[in-house]
Amino acid sequence: MSRREGRSVFSTGETGRRMRPATVKTRLFAVRQAAAALVRSGYDPTTITSLRSLVDPVRNSGVILDYFHDRATARLPPGQREQAVIGGQLAVIADTLAIIARFHVPRDGEPLPEATLIQLAEWRKAARPRCQGSMSGKARERLRQLIQPLTRSRLLVLPEDMRKAASGDPSSRHDVARKVMLAAAIEILLVCPLRKANLARLRIDRHLQRTDRRGRRISHIVIDEAEVKNEAPIEWPVPQGTADLLETWLTQWRPHLLGDDTANPYLFPGRAPGTYASENGLGNAITGLLHRQIGVKVNPHLLRHFAAWRHLRRHPGEYEIIRRVLGHRSIETTVKFYCGLEAESAARHFHAGLELDRKEARGIVALSRPRSRRGHRSARQGG
């Protein structure tokens, strides 16, 4: 299967819009996984000659999906193996097979029978998570651990504390530089909760804008809509403290990681010249550091949830602000994800309102009570 053929299949999505490179990469990998599943299931590799082989006959797609379902099930504890394994890798492959059947096969030859398309659509639906658009139980549990007062306090002050500690750290300059790099990454996620891909790909020359009068400090993070998952452009102001930390990273510590790669344009450089730190590598490093420092496993995406909780805690119901901060397309998505996170804060506001109403009620009731005759006599005698 040629690379060229893969591009022709996945260069556009179902709506006719061109797919992003990351999506194309995901689809191509799913195709390779599907073909490998057929081979591992006993199929002769020489019979898999085109993308059509993955979906025609439709039994081939069933074999592929069963292979990944069974493999995922085998990884579960014995007591959970009767549960359906959905989402993740299985959902991506089912989605890719349905796209191939409906959009690629007719371009390459005879369209598939409608019954085949219906079957693939049903498998696609079955493989998707039932609760799309909401936080998983695992994420909620980790968020509950993170928002404990001492834990969240340690997180909020960690980037600046790490910056201050860097100068006295006895470790090698290279190791200290990596710590400051992670501090800068965490600071950005607290101030502007980017997705992991956008964080890793931040460029000094494109995304970090210096729009103050003298152009001396980083004032905004600006990312074009074509680079963002939901095509919502980002133009986010950078607070002074964050700008100072980024400047410390750029001028004092980043050069220790660059070596001879001084022309590297990325804020977080990778190991190879001219590259950025890999998404998974940077994400895992952040998770490991936070686990050591605050005692909770926090991945970069959980910091997006933390941002939502932190704002809703002080401003219950302000989902539109969260929608804008996180770049969701619709307010419905934001509400589905975070409805209930602000329950405790909402209850405090409700109780405060109740106390104000009770205070007002006491005054009204007191004024409505008639004065006693004894009180009137005392008043006349005093006069």
How is this structure best summarized?
The chain has about 375 residues and is mainly alpha-helical. The protein has helices at about 5-10, 20-40, 60-75, 90-110, 115-125, 135-145, 150-165, 175-190, 195-200, 240-260, 280-295, 300-315, 320-325, 330-340, 345-370, 375-380; strands at about 210, 220-225, 235. It has 16 helices and three strands.
Written account of the structure:
This protein has 3 domains: 3-127, no CATH class; 137-299, hpI Integrase, Chain A, CATH 1.10.443.10; 347-382. Helix 3 (58-74) runs antiparallel to helix 4, helix 7 (149-166) packs across helix 8 (173-191) and helix 8 (173-191) runs antiparallel to helix 10. The chain contains 16 helices and 3 strands. The chain is mainly α. The longest helix has 26 residues, at 343-368. It has a 3-stranded antiparallel sheet with strand order 1-2-3, with no helix packed on it.
CATH level-4 homologous superfamily of the largest domain: Intergrase catalytic core
Q: Enter the CATH topology name of the largest domain.
A: hpI Integrase, Chain A
What is the typical, i.e. mean, pLDDT?
86
Low confidence ranges: 1-13
- Helix amount: 55-70%
Instruction: Please give the number of β-strands.
Output: 3
GO biological process, one term: DNA integration
Domain Tyr recombinase: 145-351
Pfam family, one: Phage_integrase
Keywords: DNA recombination
